[in-house]
Amino acid sequence: MLPGRLTVAARAARHSAIAAQIRTFKAPPATYSLDRNHRVVVVGGGAAGLSISHQLLRSGKFAPNDIAVIDPATWHDYQPGWTLVGAGLKTREQLRKPQAGLVNPKIKFYNHGVGSFSPKENFIMLGNGDKIGYEQLVVVPGISINYASIKGLPEALDATDSPVCSIYGYDTCDKVFGKIEKLRKGTALFTQPTGIIKCAGAPQKTMWLALDYWKKAGLYNPSGTSPVNITFATALRTMFGVPKYSDKLDELRKKRGVEGLFQHDLVAIDGNTATFAHPGGELKKQFDFLHVVPKMGPHEFVKKCDLANEAGFVDVDESTTRHKTFPNVWSVGDASNLPTSKTMAAITSQAPVLVRNLLQSLEGKKPDMAYDGYTSCPLVTEYGKVLLAEFKYGGVPKETFKTWFGVDQVVPRRIFYHMKKDFFPWVYEKFMVKGIWAGPKGLIK
Ligand code: UQ1
């Protein structure tokens, strides 16, 4: 542990303390003075916040400092790459950049957290008490990982000698590959929790890559008698949310000899014992390796604000991305209630819709572009192969390469692997964060 870096356990505790502090904030007085005013304020400098703020800037309709981005982060991580870190294919350092350096100097960057929203009065209060006014507000801060939601998890992740690891955080993804390499025999457990998580395919991507690693090392085969045996324990009923891809993945699971525990939700870790809740009661399972996906949920400052629905997600129209009650508020991405799978690929389609509709709105016109729920999951099924799931609302496949070349994307392919490993990180850095990438629709002119 580097000096000054908080442990996962300490961070979980600090998170609750900050949340408690924020809850005690008083509503601002009726008369207030703003410290700064912008035409558009974007809360969040992640994939969505950077795409949207730069697409807005490139519209040519804004002067310097008309647009502001608010984010407390020091670093910006290419999170889709963390599965590759878990497989020893990339380093986490390769995937991060200083956050401030990614924001165009013509955009005002507030390197602060948000304390509270006042959507009726069109301002935001920063964590430092400053009030920032806006004409249009974009709320895209992502979701948070709740490590403490599984008993014993923060401590197990922090303990370097424990075989418990997770690709879901910068601090934890580094431990995964070392633990995969270290396992020579025994039970390897991979989990997926209940509730909404980002990139619902990632829990099994890590499993497929580890399986392939152990297979190549001669430690795993589907016979059930090899030194390593593998279990995928998921709180869901199926391998994946879309039947077309789920059937294929379940076929792979059976063919590869992986035990499937469905509707099993990891609730506690104690030494080498994992406890699962399932409809029939409780199951305790011993493990020699455990890859955990913690539960996730909206940030406290979003959950408790007037913009959130009951579940704590920003309550926007699923087609226009405009807030259902406050017409000058918009949201997409992980923090929104858009009923689709939360991925970076989804942002490529959501951002142009939000931007177009927000610009229309600034001109007093009606939103006229619709989001169809497009999202994608480049599902790594082994080293060198990816099944490129692409679908829209209702779990209906919408495959880019099927449309163009008649290629069925349910078949894991090498070309998709290179897109996942090399092309998407490149296009993200060179184009997407700069506001010129619309995913399957290509470059934005
Ligand atoms: C994409 O554009 C993108 O972002 C840069 C991803 O990154 C994680 C993706 O996974 C996908 C699927 C896209 C969509 C682009 C094409 C060309 C299918």
TrEMBL record:
Alphabetized Gene3D superfamilies for the sequence: FAD/NAD(P)-binding domain (3.50.50.60)
InterPro entries reported for this sequence: FAD/NAD-bd_sf, FAD/NAD-binding_dom, Sulphide_quinone_reductase
Protein name in the entry: FAD/NAD(P)-binding domain-containing protein
FAD/NAD(P)-binding domain segment(s): 39-154
Source organism of the structure: Neonectria punicea
